[in-house]
Amino acid sequence: MSTTSTTTSHPQAPTRAAARAERERADADRADRRGADAEQGGGASGAPGTGWRDRLGAYVALTKPRIIELLLVTTLPTMILAQGGLPSLGLVLLTLVGGTLAAASANVFNCYLDRDIDQVMNRTKRRPLATGEITPRAALVFATVLGVVSLLWFALLVNVPAAWLTFAAIAIYVVGYTMILKRRTPQNIVWGGIAGCMPVFIGWAAVTGSLSWAAVALFGVIFFWTPPHYWPLSVKFKKDYANAGVPMLPVVATDRRVAVEMVAHTAAMIACSLALIPLAGMSWFYAAVAVASGGWFLWLVIAMLRRAGHPERGKLGAMKVFHGSITYLTVLFIAVAVDVFLPF
Description:
Layout: H1 2-9, H2 12-33, H3 52-62, H4 65-83, H5 89-113, H6 115-118, H7 128-131, H8 136-158, H9 160-181, H10 188-192, H11 194-208, H12 213-236, H13 238-244, H14 249-252, H15 255-280, H16 284-309, H17 318-341
């Protein structure tokens, strides 16, 4: 009996040791992969965490909070312009919270649908669904709950027009961009970018219950701003997109063609920003900021075009344009808000 016992216990010991070693290697690998993709707000703490803080952080990462921040930057100034002053604090908070929930829902749906390509791309492989920290089913439930709550939030606490516009924003991003356009056409970000313009309409409708041509002009600013904002990032990560089979314009076109289209979109963006002057009765202050900031950003894009035509001049400087686009949009919308309170 003792001989049998000794014999059967020998293969178990190395098996347990191997299992422990495997767990230690997995833990080390998870520690190495923890982090966030700050530029997109879409990174995550690597593989499965052990505490509730890790899990909470993973769910927050799925919502891409840095992208949400940029969307909210356009909402508040739009509400101020629509009101002709500062709206009630309660309405502002309700709109911003509802907008955050809606954007978070759309972003989580995006992570759920793109989890296969996120595993391939270096830029996104740390996202919670790509690492397995969050299961697909849990992410889908999370996205659905956020979306339903956001729609009820707007319908019950703000107004019905804002709720319908919120539904449209989520649908355009999830169905229009992620499911239909992203993997099929180089113009994906152009038309899919409409979702990113919707906070302007939502903010305006939250204040007035309707829309106006001034809101359309602001919508146009963001619509034409989106390609020269996102394409530079696509230039930097075009190998990632190519490996994942996503036909972003920089993947299928030359750098020069991308830069040419960026110049065209930037010119249209500036035109929309100037159209706001007569449509909303903006003062010389906003006009000066719109011309100066628009001219500066156009100069950045033209500089990228020149370098694209002459590789010997060095790197394209795509990320300089990317960061510049964020600065431009922030400055312009701050000017929109400030202009309302000026005495002239």
